Each structure stands twice: as structure tokens, then as C-alpha cells.
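Can anyone check this?
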Amino acid sequence: MIKQIFILIISVFFLFSCVTEPSKNATLSGKIDNANNFVVAVYELAILDKTIKTINSENPNIGLSINQETEFDHRLQSPVKYTYADENGIFSIDDLTPGIYNIVLQKDGLFMVYIYNLIVVKGKNNIAITDINNFKIVTMPQSVTTPFVFKSGTQYYFPQNTIFTEKVNIESGAILAIEENRKIEFHNDIITPVAEGKYFWITSASILNFSPTIQPITMFDRINISSTEPINLSNAKITFINSGVNFSVPSGSISHSYFNHNNNALIIDGGEVNVKNIVHLNSKNRSIDFGFNQALTNNKINYLNNISFYNDISVYSSRVSLDIINNYMSDNETAVHSMDADVEVMDNIFTNNNKAVEILGSYAIIKNNNFIGNGIDDIIFGESSSRKRADGIINYNNFMKTNNIYLRMTRTHGFIGTEDDIDAKYNYFANENIENQNRDKNREPSLVYEFIIHPRLTTPNP
């Protein structure tokens, strides 16, 4: 089956009318103007992560606000009910429980329309859907050599690898669906939406056609962005990508964007590309990978005001200096892994990660963070694979769990992981017997150095 389905958000005009007679169930009916033989499917709302919604409410400057537009994907759910519109575009679905639903429309495996948060009341509910034929599908060639605009309300299908050599403009509401193992390459400027919350969507074309049951979703390969000019990417929703969005540019930013269900989400190849106000979830490998590129400047990069949940390694840095500031990082296998570079970790919340911060061969300044409920280690200092040793300071942090290892100094390759004692003064430790929570020479006599933890705070640092 050729998968040529794309998902599109449209404006709809709808009218509800309720009958006065009592009714246990609801009926949803309506007419799709100038269209026929559409599948009309009703879905439960996507479940919004309660912790992230709390962060959105209490810390609106961190990440972005998740909603049905960011979270709902019909491929991840089975429909509650579905039917087919007749030759006149008329449809009716009976026996619905009153509530709020997402509605999906599809015709002949060609394209799909999402209607979010539709209120269905007891009795009869009528919807009028207009202008559905104004939306287009474009199948993309292997090469585009003139300036190109991805238009709002248009769905772009990539059955093969495609290269763009000239400037590209991506409007909010544009959909780019890429076949399995295929990639897109951009070799010039990219203009993306400025208004926050107005997304374009890049996703795999896998199983976008309607199915009454959940099917496995395969990933597309990658997006390569290379340019001699700065690139600023914003308001993107990117899902089901394998090798990530690869930035090979001298400078730029990724902001107010959403990444979910990827293997790698972002790979920053050496340039000064700052990452701010994004949400990245459920990456199976390195979610954000900051790498060294000898041809670029490799200045210090900001990872600022982001939300990171459920990743294998949330932030991975190799030979790239990072400022990791004011982020909320939770339920990751490893939240921060820094190797052979300077790193500042300040004003973050680390909660329920297996390992929170791992410093290998790097100099780290770790201040004013909250470590809450992490599984094995809060902070690890050790030697990197290039035989460099870690160093730094750890001050004014709150370590709130009582039965994990707050500070660990590791021995790798037969060498001690640091070159001197580590300044770990003026921290708050929930466990008063900190020496038993401290894997240094107090517990492993073969280690030469230790964390200097006194004086220490007696109450949490506000």
C-alpha cells in the first residue's frame, strides 16, 4: 500500500443542537461540503502528562504548553467509533457517550483532517464542515533548485530523498510526511513560523492512512540542515525520526518546538546552536546530541528553559561546552552526560532520573539545582574515554532523596576519575549521614581524592 496520507489542521465551523427529550447517548452527524466517501472517526482525547501540565502552569517560561495539537496522533490510538460519509458527504455516528473528542476525517488514503476538542453533548450534535477541497497534496521530487514555500493547509509527501538547494519557507499548518528510511536535506536558509504555538509538523508517512486498530509505526531517517549562515528553527513538531534533525551551521537556535517518539531528536554538529523552550520526550537513544566539529567555531552553547522526559540520554555533550540552565529533566535514564568539555549546570530540577548528571573528563560548575528522587546517582565525576579526568565545584544544591548516592567519584581504566578533591561545600543533603551517601575515599579507600562537603547547609537552598 502506498502511504500518501498527511495530517492537516483546518478551521471548521460547527453548530450544536440538543433535543429536549432525555437521551442516554449522543449522536454525531453532519455534512462534509463538496466531498464524499470520507472516513469519519471519533477518538478519545490524547492524555496530557500531568507533570508537564503542572510545569506549564507553575513555570510558563519553561518548555512549551502541551495540548491536543502537540500530543494527539491517531496512529497511537484506536477510534471509539467510525463511519463513512455517503456520496453527498453526509454521515452519522450513534451511541457516543457525551464528552470531548478529537475527530479525524480521511478520504481514500489521500489526506487527513484533525478537529480537536469537539464537544459532544447528550442528544443530537450536528457539524457542518466547509472548504475541505481547498487543501492540497504535493508529492516532492528528488531535487528542488528554486526557492520553495511549504504552505499552510498543504501536505507534502516525500517518497524518496529530497535536496533543497535554495531558501525554504515553512508556514504553520504545513505537513511534511517522509517515507521510511528517507531523508530531507536543506542547504540554504530556512524560515519558520514566529508566532508561538503555530506549528508545522514533520513526521513519518508510516501508517498515516486510517486503521481501526493500532499498527507499528516505522521511522523516517533524518533531516540534514547545512548552511554557511545562521539558521533559527522554531514552532516545529517532529515525530518518528530515527537519526534526528542534524544541524551543521555556524550558529542559530531551535526554540518553541516539540519532539516525541524519536530515536535521536536533535544532533548539533559543532556550531553555536542554542536550544531553548523545547519539549523532547521518549527518545530511545541520545535525545539532544551536542558534538564537536573542527570546521566550526564550537563556542559555548545554551540549553535553556527546556522540558525533558522519558529519554535514554536526554542531553549528551562531547567536546562541546554547555550552559545547562533552568530546565526540568525527569524520568530519563541519564539526564546530562558531559565528556571532555566545560559545562555549567545551574538552576535546574532533576527528578526521578536513573542518573542525573554524569561528568567525565569535564570541568563542571554545578550550582543551585534541585535533585529530587533520582534512582542511582545524583552526580558522577569520572574519567572520560580519552583519559581526561573530571574537576569542578558543586555548591548550593539541594539533594532531597535519602537513599541514593548523592556524589560518586568513579575509577575507570585503572585511574581515579579526578585530579584533586572536589569542592562540594554549602549543599543541602536530606540524609544527615552524608558520608554514607558519598562514593569517595570514605567508602572506597583505594580512591585518593574526595568530595569536600563541609560546611553544609542545614536547610534547603531556596
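Reply from J.R.: I decoded it. Residues 1-22 have pLDDT under 50 and may be disordered.
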